[in-house]
Amino acid sequence: MQGIIFRGTIRMIPKSSWVRPAANRQRRSPANPFVAFVLGCLMVLAASSTNCVQAEIIYSGVKNIALDTPTFSTDNYYGVAFIPGNSQDQITFDNNETPFGLTLYVEGNGVGSPLIDSSGNPQALSAGTTIGSGSSGTFGNASTQYTMVTYPSGSGNWANVQNGYLGVSFTENSQTYYGWIELSVTPQPNNLHATIQGWAYQNTAGESIAAGDTGIASVPEPSSLVLAGLGGLGFLGAAARNRWRRRLVLASRS
Fold first, then answer.
1. Residue numbers of the domain that contains 187
2. 118 burial class (0-12, 13-18, 19+ CB within 10 angstroms)?
3. What pLDDT, on a 0 to 100 scale, did the predictor assign at position 187?
4. Is 149 contained in some domain?
């Protein structure tokens, strides 16, 4: 019986140093990019849904309510109720005849207060002005009638103001809320023409609001996000499959 003689030395190679065939190294599942993309889409949808539901500013929409005083013998009144169902208007406007001519008044009817300057006149604010506890000026007495403008003298902060904002505060269930009312005032012969264009308030008690802020953000609709997500998934899937196929081809050649 012949024996087999091995010449040389035998070395033990640690398992950690083993190298897999190139074909096995190149095969990776394309599923992980799909999972990451789907989770990202779900997070975006959840965030957008929260923004749509939890709106902080309540906006009336465009109103364009005319407050005309066509003659010196008529009176035109309008009350703004920020919170629907409230038994009392939070802010009221009175456009009427006075011994000095035609005057536009604002008062809180015991509930609301206009933002006034140091002379006690309601301020005509520009868009973006902060309305709240830190506003420049003070909020008047809720039971006092304040003059916005008088014609023909043209006295008052609201003379010839177009798209100005009246800062207001009002109380509901012993809590203070802040808001704005957009108005335009135009003098005409024997007619003080005023238009209430809309209003809004911050529905979180004590929180300030910017004049003109309607709370309407340019957030895509959830349906649009879903369609974008599906399109992105299709594109990502095609790219992943192409990469996977190229790797298989390279592995087969090695």
1. 57-210
2. exposed
3. 79
4. yes
Between the CA of residue 24 and those of 29, 209, 249, 253, what are the distances in Å?
A: 12, 62, 12, 13
Distance (Å, whole) CA 182 – CA 65: 11
pTM, entire model: 0.66
CA distances from 219 to 46, 50, 228, 229, 245 (A): 12, 11, 14, 15, 38
Q: Which residues pair with 129 in a beta bridge?
A: none
At 29 the pLDDT is 46
CA atoms of 253 and 73, how far apart (whole Å)? 99
Tokens matching residue 181:
């009312």
Which pair of structure tokens corresponds to residue 139? 């909020």
The answer to the question of residue 236 being in a domain is no
Collect the ranges in the chain with pLDDT lower than 70. 1-55, 70-74, 85-87, 218-254
Per the domain annotation, does 253 fall within a domain?
Answer: no
Q: Residue 30 and residue 90: Cα distance in Å, rounded?
A: 61
Q: Write down the number of H helices and E strands in the chain.
A: 3, 13
- Look at the chain and report how many structural domains it folds into: 1
What single-letter DSSP state applies at residue 204?
S
What is the rounded CA–CA span in Å between residue 187 and residue 150? 10
Locate 62 and state its tokens. 């465009």
Of 99, 94, 107, the residue nearest 72 (C-alpha): 99
